[in-house]
Amino acid sequence: MKETSIWAIYESRLRRVSAYIHDHLDEELDLDRLSEIACLSPHHWHRVYRAVHGETLAATVKRLRLHRAAGDLVRTDLSVEEIAGRSGYPNLQSFNRIFKSVFGMPPARYRREGSHMVFQSNPQKGISEMYDVTIKTLAARELVGVPHEGSYMAIGRAFETLGGTLMARNLFRPEMRMIGVYLDDPDLIPEDRLRSFACVTEGQTVPADAPLVHRHLDGGDYAVLRHKGPYADMHKAYQWLYGVWLPKSGREVRDTVMFEDYISNPRDTAPTDLLTDIHLPLK
What we know:
Blueprint: H1 3-23, H2 31-38, H3 42-53, H4 57-75, H5 80-86, H6 92-103, H7 107-113, E1 133-138, E2 141-149, H8 156-168, E3 178-182, E4 195-200, E5 213-217, E6 220-228, H9 234-249, E7 258-262, E8 275-281
Antiparallel strand pairs: 1-6, 2-4, 2-5, 3-4, 3-7, 6-8, 7-8
Helix pairs in contact: 1-2, 1-8, 4-5
């Protein structure tokens, strides 16, 4: 069998495993069960998965559960106990310890004092004290990506598919940057109908064969907010950018999509150190 056809099989299996993980985060995920879904022995499958995704299956599951837990703490009224159980930690002490080791503070304190609180509106702050926003003029760019429908917090599923597909097809290049394109306002559109795309740059070099699609990013002026911290906290940054920065900036929004440029890799960067540039298009 040719190498390309072997990797085409692996690509399909990677997608099945990734989809299963995202659909069953509330359950106990047995690594042998995931190997069965991949139709490979655990001994071989774990190595294939790690070679493509850059982390073990266990690390992926832990990262996704804690990422979702942080989102639940910021955006829901679920108790810490409920979030711990939903994250696969029936023992609250274990959940507190693991969460603190990753996010730098226990979950209850994170809910009160996490980096999302930085963007709470403060009428006492003047324009000179505003957060790290710069105006940049960007050239148009071609992207290739995977579409996602549903919660923006769950776009990681599309990024897993994108990364696995590019690696399996030997199309990934080190200069590619991870870009998230968001089409809808989550405060206006029901969560299950939100549309977004998990993308990389250098899209002009990649054939758009399913599940990959091409997208074009318009050039022009953008307000760029450098956000440091977990992705779960970014909703507050958007609210601040529109509600506080924009009215004081003297600029108008341009009718094209917002996007996020992910400076850090969540697989090897602590959530509290993640850097993301949020791009707001300006006239």
